[in-house]
Specification:
With about 325 residues, the protein is of the alpha/beta class. Helix content is about 55%, strand content about 10%. The chain is built from 15 helices and six strands. Strands 1-6-2-5-4-3 form a six-stranded mixed β-sheet, covered by helices on one side. β3, α2 and β4 form a beta-alpha-beta unit. The chain starts with a strand and ends with a helix. The relative contact order is 0.10.
Length: about 325
Amino acid sequence: MAARRGSAPKLGDVLLVTGAEAFLADRAVRSAIAAVSKGSTDVEVTDVDATTLDVGVFAELTGPSLFATERVLVLRGLENLPSEMAPHLIEYAGSPADDVLVVLVHSGGQKGKAVLDKLRKASVNEVVATAPKAWELPQFVAGEIRLHGGTVDERAASALVDAVGHDLRALAGACSQLVSDSDGQAVTPELIGQYFGGRAEVTSFAVADAAISGRTEPALEQLRWALDCGVAPVLVTSAMAGGLRGLAKFSSAPSGLREADLAREVGVPPWKLKQLKQQSRGWTPGGLAAAIKAVAQADADVKGASGDAGYALERMVITVSHSHGRR
């Protein structure tokens, strides 16, 4: 999730946006521009790639304006900043111009870390754009729907994640559309089904849930349908691995934990505990070990170890579902 350190951006600030989640980083940049402009068309926004920056250009973009205009400079790809520019940027961060907001965007990773560390020491504000974990996506959906003035419960938010997938930009667009078309009513699983039902029925999570519950035929039907509809094989193995991981954590969690503490221990939203409790019946440590081994083999197969991804996935589904109840 995007986490902010410090107050809202304003003219005279240097804002650092870091992290690999492009959607959240772009949103942070747009929010900063909006906070400064406040609907005014007089704010001049310049978007520059760090690789093209030199001392002269930087001085021109941050120096006094001949027309006394308020300005925003967005400097992208900070990790690729030419080394000779780093001292000038850090010096500027220590004493920024009053009529300019400078937004520095770094895509994450170790490249350019020395510059980041020096900027942080200069006490610049920072927004960290970190992709939410899979189990946090329903929270992201709920937040998006509230942002647009709608309401949704946790189960419906999870249904939307299952239907649309993990891409934040796609999820945000779906939330906007659903609130717009809900006529002020809560976003429900039924409404989600009307818009995304076809996609929900072929989700890789449906394949995993059926197989982990020991329902071989429904799992195979879901798998064939998913592959026919273009679901990537690696998404199926990923969903199966995640489901089994959650089941293993649930089965080995200390007894007597409160629901909220158990959910944190397992790494799932609280509502999913009921499903895990149902799925855990009939699973043994030996069965889980066999299922996890089958998923690891299938994952290797669909990534190139086998020429027939469909066959590899069918074998995985059969092995996982038959491991349910195995001693």
